[in-house]
Amino acid sequence: MTSGPGAARTDDLPGALAEIVADFQEMGENERLQLLLEFSQELPALPARLADHPELMEPVPECQSPIFVTVEVGDGAAPAGPGDVVRLFFSAPAEAPTTRGFAGILSQGLDGLPADELLAVPDDVPDRLGLTRAVSPLRLRGMTGMLMRIKRQVREKTAS
Amino acid sequence: MPVPTDPDVKLAEYAHPERLVTTAWLAEHLGTPGLVVVESDEDVLLYETGHVPGAVKVDWHTELNDQVTRDYLDGEAFARLMSAKGIGRDDTVVIYGDKNNWWAAYALWVFSLFGHEDVRLLDGGRAKWFAEGRPTTTDKPAREATDYPVVERVDAPLRAFKEDVLAHLGRPLVDVRSPQEYTGEKLHMPDYPQEGALRGGHIPGAQSVPWARAADEDGTFKARPALEAIYQGEKGLKVTDDVIAYCRIGERSSHTWFVLHHLLGFPTVRNYDGSWTEWGNAVRVPIVQGEAPGEVRA
What we know:
The complex is a heterodimer. Helix content of chain A is about 45%, strand content about 10%. By secondary structure, chain A is mostly helical. Chain A has a single domain, classed as Sufe protein. Chain: A, CATH 3.90.1010. Chain B is about 30% helix and about 10% strand. Chain B is built from eleven helices and nine strands. Chain B has helices at about 10, 25-30, 60-65, 75-85, 100-115, 125-130, 160-170, 180-185, 225-235, 250-265, 275-280; strands at about 20, 35-40, 55, 90-95, 120, 175, 205-210, 245, 270. The interface of A and B includes residues 101, 133, 138, 149 and 152 of A.
């Protein structure tokens, strides 16, 4: 479950996400919490077309705090294909910094990837951040839930 | 020398008013020698974003629970934790947190297992303090380590295990989860990670009183007459009853435990912290589905 004393694998991750995992791994446990807090502060605000229409977003009940996620694939004009770019959008309240931090990591690590590369991201990425002990396994499941829902939405939107 | 209690008139109606303080009282008493303020949240980072000046953080997952066995700290580990947080055995501890004080109530209950005598909740919790625009800081206090004694945990009066619940069937149980969890309707959700329980429903005979019914919109506890109308009026509980409360992992039921034990004065209330994540996974324990409490079969 934990990554153990050695560094977690990053060679099977897209570049931005690999860098984030490496950044977490280089730090001591207390600093990792601080870094997670920074990701929570950097989570971009929703564009108006989503902020005004919360019903377009999917709730993530695995997180103990209310968070919503939605993806857009391609330009929306034609049916999306595996090479089309995925954009990610998250909504999480300021009172849920841990959840926002998870969303911030996924946002910075996955936004802008082509659909096929995003779908190839291993499901165990949350376990590679070295946060298991500082954050607790139960809380980390929220991040796994977000990743699974993102991938499912991408699959649905690229299915022909 | 104990810190004086809050003389607030709403609190005075409760069976044990000394277990609660108002935000106004806390604001006046910050910095009083012998008073330690503790923040305990569901969100492990919330304290870092700002907290009551001087408050220390105690995290339920990573600090109050044993990290291997599903259990709380033992006496030695609790003493080490208290010492590191700068909490003395005779200190007055005021706990507050997010989510209507669920985790604060849970922390208070765990402190109670170790017999820490003067432990109180902040009525309305973190949300009320912030909503009122009271002072906050991101500075972490540097409290001197204390010499907290090793006190063994005494579970029996306050904590029920699965075997206790089985032996208790036929006597009052309060299920404080959502109505959908109580009926068993809510269990499987698409893409839900392996969490929770294999079976849905409730313990036979348990009354459904979602925890939130005890709280007002601002997160403070309802006044005593309103609480009595729910638990004693509508649900027919008697102060002399032996009651067990449960939820999913024992945190929401700590909130109800606090209401029944400290606010309404039921002397015998236990929290079943194994709750549905144990019961709903246990082999051959009786389960009832649907809205009715159901019969206990002999």
